[in-house]
Structures are given as structure tokens and as C-alpha cells.
Design goal:
37% of the residues lie in helices and 18% in strands. By secondary structure, it is an alpha/beta fold.
Amino acid sequence: MSVKAKKHLGQHFLKDENIAKKIADTLSFQGYKAVLEIGPGMGVLTKYLLEKDTTTYVIEIDSESVEYLQANYLNLAPRIIEKDFLKYDLKEVFNDSQFAIIGNFPYNISTQIVFKVLEMREQIPEFSGMFQKEVAQRICEKEGSKAYGILSVLAQAFYNAEYLFTVPPSVFNPPPKVESGVLRLTRKEHLDLPCDEALFFRVVKIAFQQRRKTLRNSLKIFNLSDNLKANAIFGKRPEQLSVDSFIELTQLIENDI
């Protein structure tokens, strides 16, 4: 694939075999029989996934990469999905079965990939891969940090998030201008939140859209009672609240509206 095509896709292709193997080893391969790699490119990570005791699928939107994979990974060919991950209904391949997701994710769609994983969380017990370092850290960040935000809370509501290691620009072609970071999300045992999930997502997003304001001011849209707004939690800013505190906040709002 040409450098121009790579830049168009927002992807920087990994060329370091040791890093590729290390990323493949981030999954446990327990509790599911299939793994889906997003954006395999020329297969540097794929080759190590194919060595695992699992069924590997790849999803790739670029036709040149698909042709390369079909020619060089003959056993993989029937499981190459030439589709846009964000638009494709994965149930066409996996039905309702469990599968993991892994990849060297294109920077320009990496957060959208996480949101789609959250939508499919009942089928995805494990997720790992490479992001722009700041994004990976943000997903894994805890309350009290400026990096802590919507993605942190929503991901950690359903998954245990671990930042695993940092990857330098020199191991990519073309080299990005920033460092990369590899993370792992492991699904929590209990997926159901003890509050209205749609309201939880809405509260988190609205709170962080005005993160400098106290919750009393940023959540005015809910027309909450004066009695509820007197609760000490509404005097805090969103980055001060843990995931459990956001669940508690959602419960309070749910009971008031």
C-alpha cells in the first residue's frame, strides 16, 4: 500500500515484529473461540494471532490490503471481511457468540471503535490494541485527572481498563508524530448497571461537555428539584466523580425526574 493510501486511512502500519507479538499476547484467549482484528494492513499482527489457539477474523476496508492478505495468508482468506468496521453488523459473522477484538487502530476512528465495542459489550469479553498514547491513557484514567472524561467513565463502567505499554513512533511506517499506547479492556462480571443505562450515558456526556462547571450548573437540563440540587454531589465537577459516583448520581436524577 502506498504511503498516500495509509495517510488517507489515518493509519500508521506497525513494522516491528517484537511489538506485534507483544500485542498479540495481550489477549488471554479465554472464554471465547474467535478474535477479530481491526485494520490488519499487511498482517504483521495477524501472523501472531494465527499462531494462537483461536479462530482469527480480520476486517479491513482497504482493497489493496485485502488483496495482499488473500495472497499471503491463504488459510485466513475465508475470514477476511472487506467492510467498514464502524458500519458493518458483526452479527452477520458472529451471530450471538463471544469474540475478542484486537488491532493497531487508526487514530482517526479509535474512539468510535471503543464506543462500538461498548454497544456490543455483551459479546466482547476482551478488547486490546494500540491507540494514540493520550487516548489510551484517557480510557484507562481514574477520577481526579484532567485526562479523565466521557470515554474513561463509559469504558470503565463495563470493563476493567489497563494501560499496558508505550510504543515509540519509530516502529511505524509512516512514523506518527506522537507516541502510541497499548491497552486492554477486560469485561466486568456484572454487565447490568444498577441504574437506567441510557440515562447514565446521557448524564456522563452532558456533565463532561461542560467539565469546568459544577454538576449543579451543567445538569440544569434535567430541571432537578432544589432539594436534590442541595446534595453535596452537585457541588462537584465531573472529573471528581468515580464511575460508582456517576452511577449514584444517575440514580438520584432517575428518582427525581
